Amino acid sequence: MYNPQSILDLLEARGLKRKDLLNYLNKNKNASLTQVLSRNIGVNTLESIADFFGVPIDTFFNRKNPNHSVNVNGTLNSVHNFNNTTTTNNKYENSCSYDIHLQLIEEKDKRIAALEKLIALYENQHQ
Question: What are the structural domains of the chain?
């Protein structure tokens, strides 16, 4: 379950102010961090907050199995090794988790491909 307190704890532990995070998220001066961290927080916002702190997004969730991790090795858009390491014995959880991770990888690959096309277009225009 999502735990907004973990974000506040990270701010305090690193000696940062709420305003620092709000500025990073490009929120206006009247924004409240409490509102931003509400239960309706979006994945994109959580991803940005994770980037701000340099931590995995799982940091913001109370997980039953905190040892769950995924290792992906590869270059560009080719994944050479996908290793879903879990300590749970529940095959259903493993397969669902694996499917979610594959969907995330596919989405990232699509974004990378789109960015590579934009770069190629830009380079063609400036030659």
Answer: 5-60 (1.10.260), 69-125 (no CATH)
